[in-house]
Records
---
Amino acid sequence: MKLYYSSTSPFVRKCLVAAHELGLADRIELVTVVTMPTAHNDALMRDNPLCKLPTLITDEGQALYDSRVICEYLNDLGGGRLIPAGGGKWAALVDQSLADGILDAALLMRYEVVLRPAERQWPAWRETQEEKARSALGQFERQVAGWPADRLDIGVIALASALGYLDLRFPDMGWRDAYPGLAAWFAGFDQRPSMRATVLKA
């Protein structure tokens, strides 16, 4: 398999953490690409018309995107441990969606500051995105005390990837002080070998 890769992409990291947890990481070739909302990568666009990361090329040559589809494919390939059966499935998938929403908001915050000229930046836009991210973090803060200590599914993998991205791009956000239960959970989960092997790097 081939995975289009960036060392700063939290959605790529989510896929790689899943691959490590499923014992599939050594079957994936990482292909580093540079892509931004204002600049496309021709090779990536040939395999994904949206020119977005992550994109996985299977051993059979099929292109899969986005991260949710890729993680579901890897989960099936690796024995199905990360998307629970029964009622737990929906809780894990909702948590994945909520965590991905944190990332969507964080990426829009990042683009507003880094890509838009200073005179055209819209503070209310950034503040609204941060409110969304904080609202989702608050939801997780209310839930985390009820999680099993050994919880491992696509929901918490997505959450850990989101928190790692906040650490990388928004170190002054102070999410640990605001959400201490979540911070305590992440301190433990972040020590998993899958997380240590996939640390985001600017």
---
Amino acid sequence: MPRSTSTPSPKAGPVTLAMVARRAGVSPQTVSNALNSPDLLRPETLERVRRTVDEMGYRPHRAAQALRTRSSKLIGYGIRPTPHGTTAPVMDRFLHALSQAADEAGYRILLFASPPGGAGLEGHEELLDLHHVDGFVLSGTERSDPRQGWLAKRGVPFVGFGRMWSGRQIGDWADVDGASGTDAAVEHLITLGHRRIGFLGWPRGSGVGDDRADGWRRAMRRHGLPVRGRSARSADDLDAARAAVGPLLDAGATAVVAASDVLALGCYHALRERGARPGADVAVVGFDDSPTAALLSPSLTTLAQPLEAVGRECVRLLLARMGRPTAPPERVLLEPSLVVRDSTTLVPAPDG
């Protein structure tokens, strides 16, 4: 009796490897060989199975993961574009740290283009289908990020460099405690005698930016210092930062804590346009300890992220997840360290 060639109804659920095998008239192992070891099959059998896979719209990675006898030793990492006018030294350093940690564990990082938003899921799917990566490291995590849910639904191991920034936490992650960093920056400035300490951050809704703003606010309130009218928001580029910090300087801020080194550099430009000197007239603190921070004049006090530790933790968490798929999620929060340089040498007048 001839086999049915009708396409399964969408309501019947996802197409399985067994369904493909029945349609093609072969065993499930033959389908697995066609996907993972095509050289084991005769050309006509391979062609028939591949044609059936395409006709049925079968996505092989779910079954391929279960049937593989050994790891691919590949970890996928999506490179996201850097906004125009900014640099990404922090992510470059993280990628180096991640690659080194993976190499020490016997793995390789497989890079692919991952545009922001749902479009980036195509790259993840392609790596699962074609390269059988063992898992993914995600960076640039944000509110309503579709990647974690998409991977978790398919049982694919992943770890995030960064929190989910939403009420529902999914998966393992390692992150830097930005609030602790900006809190420490305020404490440093208060020790020097500052009381009018402004904050230059990113627009609201950025999980990382909001976290860094919270640390500044928390420290200010702990010391009984006002926060109303003492903060400003800016995109992460020099021109926007230069314009945004103006009202803080007009209000008499003697120090500014910035959410990034780029924003801090924008503050440098704004001060010089006013004939003021960073570090001598207004103290400035950045965040990220970018390569240029030590080269600026004056050199920039900033918060250094422990990227080597983050890279190691991401690899450790991912390998642990591969070995224990049903274990409770693990989250690691690492503290940045304050690197004091010349931009915070100012000791303000007693009334400041």
---
Amino acid sequence: MTTLSWIRGVNGTLGHLAPEHVAGKMRRAFMSPRTLPPKSWELPLLARAERITLRFGLSALRWGQGPTVLLMHGWEGRPTQFAALIETLVDSGYTVVSLDGPAHGRSPGEKANVVLFARALLEAAAELPPLRAVIGHSMGGASVLLALQWGLRTDAAVSIAAPAQLLEVLRGFARRLGLPARARAAFIRQVERDVGVQISRLDVNGYQLDIPGLVVHAEDDGRVAASEAPLIHKAWFDSRLLLLEQGGHSRLLADPRLGQAVLELLARTTQRARQSA
């Protein structure tokens, strides 16, 4: 029996008897990220980074000189997972600031969720020079879209392998861990209580996305379905959709087509700004 099968069996039994208790255990697991070490291919870029600490304790890595682009990794991710994209941006004359999300890397906190990530983006943006673009991967992509609703100022934004509806993420997690119906409902209620936002409101269909954007996803993503990307693109009037045949959930970050598409987006926003000046 696999560990997941055992967890599902226990949850299936106890979830009927003590739904709130089981939901609480799963909620804590859902919001408690592991610290995973960088891969060997991330180390050269990490060695060249400047470590900075922002006003409220957020940690970040910085490279390059020029207009600023802000990056946010996903769940249990790292700033240097964007290594190929960072190299492309720095070589093209940009400063790149890549955050350690809350409860990740050297940033403070014990819990992480999309709301905390969105607030971290707002805190970082308040201290950094005007942002040319904000780019997020997975949960980081969802947090970029949410932060835009809360006033994040940037010329453009990029969502990579992100979910369109956070409620479906929670339901999928609960189903995968075998929570019965009452425990699933309790799990979602408890998450909503912790994050302070009704989860059904974290849906791009209700968002106002009025800046140029790029939506990127790999068709073979096994963690966030590629069908989420067209939903984001449809809700985001001024966006380009880039679907890659392969790349999984994280390997697409190294695809040169991603870097090229980001540079094209930045060039388009620069030209637009000059025309309106």
---
Amino acid sequence: MTTHVSEIAQGYGAGRRRGRVARNAPPVQQTEPPKLRDAPLFATLDETTLSRLSLDAKIEIFEDAEAIFRQGDAVSHLLIVLRGHVKLSRLSLSGEETLIAMLGAGETVGAPPTCANEIHSLSAKAVGPTSALALPAGRFAGLVKESPALNAAVMQDAKNRIASLIDEIESLKGQNADERLARFLLSLCPPGEERCRFRLPYDKRLVAALLGVQQETLSRAFAKLRFYGVRTETRNVHVESVSRLADQCEHFGRAAESRGGRGGAA
């Protein structure tokens, strides 16, 4: 079922559900209707271009662990995460899977299509109940050629992705596991709070893969952070002092530099 732009403006409860629905699957949380402008990729576009992009847009709802697309599939839509998380991964020739990224609300799944007959270079899978706004790839690619504003937005998106990859490479090569974990937890702390509680967005197995460390290494890093006021119970995290955690993060970085900047990803 296609959910047209007028229906999208009213909310996303009537989206199309992919695959078999689990009887006891938790519902996707809904708050306010999705808007294209809420996505960073479209933040600077004019209303006319946004309206044209919205034509034939629909909302897809995925169960936990459901495949959204697979490496080698033809690109049919540009997807923007509304709720939940999406895991991007790549399979090697030997069949080994490498986690590339974890995406959350507002992020685009894969690079925006700019021409016909593009192929996905990665696989995407839902992590938890997930919904995404799907824009037809053909219409999007056509508008990229017609709209200077959209073309500029796609180019800026590509620059941002490159910058993000550089940051990730720097993290993997220059930060040890303790610093990577501390920085990851700091990114989840609510702004302006000195003492906070939150829930990890996904399980620790995925956190370890995202940070480029073994699960045993992640467990040791969590244990070390207990001395600095960070307590965990399964996916629940309590931070006694955000500023203390930030200071310790800097200490981890200086310690890694003094040892030659080795990443410690084992």
